[in-house]
Amino acid sequence: MVIMNESPRVYDRIIEQHLRDNRQMIFVSGPRQVGKTTTCRRNADFYLNWDILENQRKILKGPQTLAAELKLDETHAKPSLVVFDELHKYPKWKNFLKGFFDGYGDKSKVIVTGSSRLDIFRKGGDSLMGRYFLYRMHPFSVAEVARTTLSASPIAPPAPIEETDWNALWTHGGFPEPFLKRNNAFTRRWRALRGQQLTREDMREVTQIQELGAMEVLIHVLGERSSEQVVYSNLAREVNVSVDTISRWLGLLERMHFGFLVRPWFKSVANSLRKEPKWFLRDWSGIVDDGQRAETFVGCHLLKAVEGWTDRGLGDFSLHYLRTKQKQEVDFLVVRDGKPWMLVEVKYADRSLSPSLRIFHEKLKTAHAFQVVVDLPFEAVDCFSETRPVVVPARTFLSQLV
Q1: What's the CA gap between 224 and 313, in Å, rounded?
Q2: Where does residue 233 rank: exposed (0-12), middle (13-18), buried (19+ CB within 10 A)?
Q3: Is the dihedral of CA 374, 375, 379, 384 positive or negative?
Q4: How far apart (Å, rounded) are the C-alpha atoms in residues 20 and 42?
Q5: Which residues are bridge partners to 323 per DSSP?
Q6: pLDDT tens string for the chain (402 positions)?
Q7: Which is nearest to 378 in space by CA: 174, 146, 109?
């Protein structure tokens, strides 16, 4: 069972392994309040936050002056670990990091964190290519509650978690504070505050949007439509903006980690949809409908898995869905190194195998095809030993995604 104030993360192990094996800087990107600062500061020798004026002044003096203040020119038994938080808010952050890393990369290890995706600010500055590796941080998941060890394979053996932990994930979501606190009133207030921070603070920092009122309407609409297909023209009419504006705002909300888009896979699928993505919230705790919550819950777990596997160099993974014009549909398709690998249909309680799962499994020749049912007890069975379409408990399947 996960205990408050005793919550090791799998990202602790990922960072430890990177610092041991690689010279490159670590970029850690993820939603607000996902635990980036806590994890990255854990073993830091120096922590500098751009939002703290005193730290900002130190950074503005330049790499050489900062290095002198941190005594990086002095002899140490091991390189100092320096953490820069929210540095991307500095317009010249890439130039600063390039200079700091090139000048003092042999005397320090560097971690850079940000509440926005660190590839959102692309204008200006020298390239950092080859100087960093990006790790995308996600909330707690079933697999991370079950284990924080790292595997050399994308798939781990099944592992049970406590009933209280499962209920907390389902009810309060995976963000650390509500998940660990497990109080309904706190979760509701935390969720409302997070929404306010997104619209009133984050948006102003990264965009020149003048119509924040319309953006708030869009956020409200999307908050009720997790797991649904996005029809840009319909959203444009509802929010009273152009289709191009809706497309641009959706991309921004995705980069700010409010939600994510899953795009259709159409290679080798006749009459497949090609344009309409599906929208998912990053936090499933406020979704009322069990079916929508189940699909979002599993979708967030799958996104964490494919991004984690890719970031760790285990392969090139991506997440998609399948739907034809005849309305044959499977909720998720995981593509591995360019080839369809795993089909996932999500149900809250329905155990009757989806016909579409069989059809697409045969058509795409996937290695695995699962109907993942949330309302089933854990079974100590390796789901990935099956190569035929099969119904599996969500508790088992999700525990195997490292």
Answers
A1: 35
A2: exposed
A3: negative
A4: 16
A5: 329
A6: 444 445 789 999 999 999 999 999 999 999 989 999 999 998 899 999 999 999 999 999 999 999 999 999 888 878 999 999 999 889 899 999 999 999 999 999 999 998 766 655 444 445 788 899 999 999 999 999 999 999 899 999 999 999 999 999 999 999 999 999 999 999 999 999 988 888 777 776 656 666 778 888 899 999 999 999 999 999 999 999 999 999 999 998 998 899 999 999 988 777 777 779 999 999 999 999 999 999 999 999 999 999 999 999 999 999 999 998 888 899 999 999 999 999 999 999 999 999 999 999 999 999 999 999 999 999 999 999 999 999 999 999 999 998
A7: 146
Angle between helices 184-197 and 163-172 (to 10 degrees): 40
Please answer whether residues 112 and 25 qualify as being in contact, where contact means their C-beta atoms are separated by less than 8 angstroms.
yes
Q: Residues 15, 128, 203, CA angle at the centre, nearest 5°?
A: 80
DSSP 15-34: HHHHHHH--SEEEEE--TTS
How far apart, in Å, are the Cα atoms of 129 and each of 97, 101, 114, 125, 126?
12, 12, 18, 12, 9
Query: CB–CB of 281/292 below 8 Å?
Result: no
* Angle at CA of residue 110, ends 108 and 115, nearest 5°: 165
The DSSP H or E segment spanning 251 is helix 243-255
d(CA 355, CA 330): 10
**Distance, CA of 117 to CA of 160 (rounded, Å):** 32
Can you tell me the distance from the alpha carbon of 357 to that of 366, in angstroms, rounded to the nearest whole number?
Answer: 10
Whether residue 319 contacts residue 304, with contact meaning beta carbons closer than 8 Å, is answered with no
